[in-house]
């Protein structure tokens, strides 16, 4: 029989409980006191009549709040949980004392060695594990886990060595031994293979608390399943590459070749060599040849030299193409580049058959707290420190900050704050962010004409910039929250269509 006694923290209350058990001549098998102050008692079953008298007497003690039966003691539960874990683990597991004597093994060890448990307990761990001086490691009383290559049954294994520490009364830890977990090369290969497999939802790592991001991910999932090119618009650091990678992993070409090219700063010659290869170097076939039947990501495609654009379009649309899906990203206004003759319209229309517009971080404030929590966990794991809490005022400050560098700036600012943090709480003072951000005026400081004329000029400019991204009146109407008829009329009035420069 086991009892759980809830009580107040009073000096001598445990002794009072034990005195009652002694009065009833109960043979106590075990007693435990947890951190919450509960007393757990383990004793043989007693007659019901005696039990009826015992329970009220315990409840009458000063400081006792409740007494009830419990199916197990806390340590019993932990013991059975540990046994269940060891029994189901497919890897051999040893537990040794500080001298290297085996005190516990799981069924996998006994099965591999073809021995009974009694023959193994008490023997030296060095009798079964070779190739590394385990006893010398134990003599150092290690505080950190370690991994070594060892021989077990004449085969190579990875040995995870996990020190076991027991808290002492003075607040220090006493080294009590270690737990050894063995992994075979085959088992490691299995785990690595699973780790490299694409997760069911490739977009799961993208924060979608905000309405804008939920809609973007919903659209991206649909587009990823198709085989058409996707053009992703977004400010610097907003996560365009992350969206492109998620689209590729969710596509039919997942598992096939996936290559990328950052177009920023490429000369004409560099761009053509990277994409099409070099006739002077026999083994340089270029990305198009290398990604045959796969996918290419063109980062910042607006930077691609104009003559390379023409050649790229000619090759990927030819009858003898390489069967490549193109994903592209840009932070530039491609409509403006087309007006300036720096980007080809035909390439734009090819790439933007499907398009996504990634909202900047300042327009999805609901994503900032979970993003911060995610990065805090990642960076604190790298830095080997306990994750700090963020104050309410800190969160509010981060949500009101405009983040001109978007998610990338957010990550860098947080990493710097964590590396310099001395306490266990993050405040807005810990974030060293620029106090002001330059913004562009909607209209020129001086303009001629009436207010109505300026509003129309601004309206036309918005429509001209957005129409290439949403190349149908219905898509554009949905984006701007207007009716299809209203947008169609405005496009006609301003002479905006697919042939517009």
UniProtKB/TrEMBL annotation:
Domain PAS: residue ranges: 78-129
Major subcellular location class: cytoplasm
Pfam family, one: Sigma54_activat
SUPFAM superfamilies named in the record: ACT-like, Homeodomain-like, P-loop containing nucleoside triphosphate hydrolases, PYP-like sensor domain (PAS domain)
Subcellular compartments: Cytoplasm
PROSITE patterns, per the entry: ACT (PS51671), PAS (PS50112), SIGMA54_INTERACT_1 (PS00675), SIGMA54_INTERACT_4 (PS50045)
Gene3D superfamilies: 1.10.8.60, 3.30.70.260, Homeodomain-like, P-loop containing nucleotide triphosphate hydrolases, PAS domain
Start and end residues of each Sigma-54 factor interaction domain: 206-419
UniProt keywords, alphabetically: Activator, Aromatic hydrocarbons catabolism, ATP-binding, Cytoplasm, DNA-binding, Nucleotide-binding, Repressor, Transcription, Transcription regulation
Domain (ACT) ranges: 2-72
Signal peptide extent: none
PANTHER family per the UniProt record, alphabetical: HTH-TYPE TRANSCRIPTIONAL REGULATORY PROTEIN TYRR, TRANSCRIPTIONAL REGULATORY PROTEIN
Name recorded for this polypeptide: HTH-type transcriptional regulatory protein TyrR
Organism, scientific name: Paraglaciecola algarum
């Amino acid at each position: 029989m086991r009892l759980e006694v809830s009580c107040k923290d009073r000096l001598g209350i445990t002794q009072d409980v034990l005195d009652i058990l002694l009065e009833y001549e109960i043979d106590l098998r075990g007693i435990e006191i947890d951190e919450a102050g509960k007393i757990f008692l383990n004793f043989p079953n007693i007659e019901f009549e005696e039990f009826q008298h015992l329970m009220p007497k315990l409840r009458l003690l000063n400081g006792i709040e409740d007494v009830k039966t419990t199916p197990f003691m806390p340590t019993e539960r932990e013991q059975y949980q540990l046994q269940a874990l060891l029994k189901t683990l497919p890897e051999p597991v040893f537990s040794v004392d500080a001298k290297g004597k085996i005190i516990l093994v799981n069924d996998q060890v006994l099965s591999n060695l073809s021995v009974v448990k009694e023959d193994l307990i008490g023997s030296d761990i060095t009798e079964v594990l070779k190739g590394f001086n385990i006893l010398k490691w134990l003599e150092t009383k290690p505080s950190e886990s370690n991994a070594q290559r060892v021989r077990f049954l004449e085969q190579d294994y990875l040995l995870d060595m996990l020190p076991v520490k027991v808290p002492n009364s003075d607040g220090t830890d006493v080294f009590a031994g270690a737990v050894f977990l063995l992994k075979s090369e085959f088992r490691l290969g299995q785990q690595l293979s699973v780790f490299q497999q694409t997760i069911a939802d490739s977009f799961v790592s993208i924060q979608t608390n905000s309405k804008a991001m939920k809609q973007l991910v919903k659209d991206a999932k649909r587009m990823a399943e198709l085989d058409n090119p996707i053009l992703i618009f977004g400010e610097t650091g907003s996560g365009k590459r992350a969206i492109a990678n998620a689209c590729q992993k969710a596509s039919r070409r997942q598992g096939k070749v996936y290559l990328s090219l950052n177009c920023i700063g490429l000369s004409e010659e560099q761009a053509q060599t990277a994409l099409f290869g070099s006739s002077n170097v026999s083994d340089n076939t270029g990305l198009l040849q290398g990604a045959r039947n796969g996918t290419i990501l063109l980062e910042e495609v607006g930077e691609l030299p104009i003559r390379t654009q023409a050649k790229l379009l000619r090759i990927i649309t030819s009858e003898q193409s390489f069967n490549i899906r193109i994903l592209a990203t840009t932070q530039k206004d491609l409509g403006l580049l087309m007006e300036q003759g720096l980007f080809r319209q035909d390439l734009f229309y090819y790439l933007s058959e499907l398009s996504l517009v990634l909202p900047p971080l300042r327009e999805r404030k609901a994503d900032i707290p979970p993003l911060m929590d995610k990065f805090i966990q990642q960076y604190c794991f790298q830095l080997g420190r306990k994750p700090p809490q963020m104050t309410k005022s800190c969160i509010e400050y981060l949500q009101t900050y405009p983040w001109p560098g978007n998610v990338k700036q957010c990550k860098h600012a947080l990493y710097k704050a964590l590396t310099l943090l001395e306490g266990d709480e993050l405040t807005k003072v810990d974030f060293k962010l620029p106090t002001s951000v330059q913004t562009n005026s909607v209209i020129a400081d001086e303009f001629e004409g009436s207010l109505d004329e300026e509003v129309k000029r601004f309206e036309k400019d918005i429509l001209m910039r957005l129409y290439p991204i949403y190349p149908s009146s219905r898509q554009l109407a949905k984006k701007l929250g207007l009716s299809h008829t209203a947008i169609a009329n405005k496009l006609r009035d301003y002479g905006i269509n697919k042939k517009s420069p």
